[in-house]
């Protein structure tokens, strides 16, 4: 099964800034009957292990809260990064007006509904008009948005917006193909379904030929 969602029009902004994240984290969640007070993140993970029926004091689990805290910080490090930092001024004035395509960029993200991984490949293209971006910065932009709690549609749009804002090209095309563990190891338990999302901007939206060239170059296989 493949779900294709094209030109989705999510109103999401460019993710949350660290400041916004702090603010929203400070609000009490309805599931929290009592404030957690001074509990540290590691204490909360230890408590979680206990509530799952485990013994957090057994040898194998003793350092698990510490490891999970570190691992979650890595998996969500996009909240502490900005596109400006990542670009690091790697924008160059180059007189090249043919399509630039970086395809098969692997990504790993976490779905915001279950906090389970979804992962796959991103294909990114743009048609410059006087400015190009350092090639490595394109996968870096993908990672800034992947390393947050996401839905695939919003992530697709955020990547397109970031490229658009950085190089003001004639157009941008982004296709993401992902597999969601929340649909594989739980829930509907479908092992072979891939979700394809796309965001087409500028001439990638208005010119069928440009869009077709992009899609034929990336040839999503599924
Ligand atoms: N559109 C979209 N949906 C997603 C994404 N990741 C996970 N989901 C879906 O989010 C939905 C959450 O649905 P709910 O009914 O609230 O949660 P649930 O009971 O756990 O749903 P099931 O997964 O069907 O068991 C599910 O349909 C997931 O497949 C994503 O990136 N985009
Ligand atoms: Zn999910």
UniProtKB/TrEMBL annotation:
Q: Name one GO biological process term.
A: tetrahydrofolate biosynthetic process
Q: Which domain of life is it from?
A: Bacteria
Q: Which reaction does it catalyse?
A: GTP + H2O = 7,8-dihydroneopterin 3'-triphosphate + formate + H(+)
Question: What's one GO-annotated cellular component?
Answer: cytoplasm
Q: Where does Zn(2+) bind?
A: 111, 114, 182
Which Gene3D superfamilies does the annotation name?
1.10.286.10, 3.30.1130.10
EC number assigned by the record: 3.5.4.16
* Biochemical pathway: Cofactor biosynthesis; 7,8-dihydroneopterin triphosphate biosynthesis; 7,8-dihydroneopterin triphosphate from GTP: step 1/1
Q: Where is the GTP cyclohydrolase I domain?
A: 43-218
- GO: which molecular function terms? GTP binding; GTP cyclohydrolase I activity; zinc ion binding
Known SUPFAM superfamilies for this protein?
Tetrahydrobiopterin biosynthesis enzymes-like
Record's keyword terms, sorted: GTP-binding, Hydrolase, Metal-binding, Nucleotide-binding, One-carbon metabolism, Zinc
Q: Which family does it belong to?
A: Belongs to the GTP cyclohydrolase I family.
Oligomer status and interactors: Homopolymer.
Protein known as: GTP cyclohydrolase 1
Q: Which organism is it from?
A: Bryocella elongata
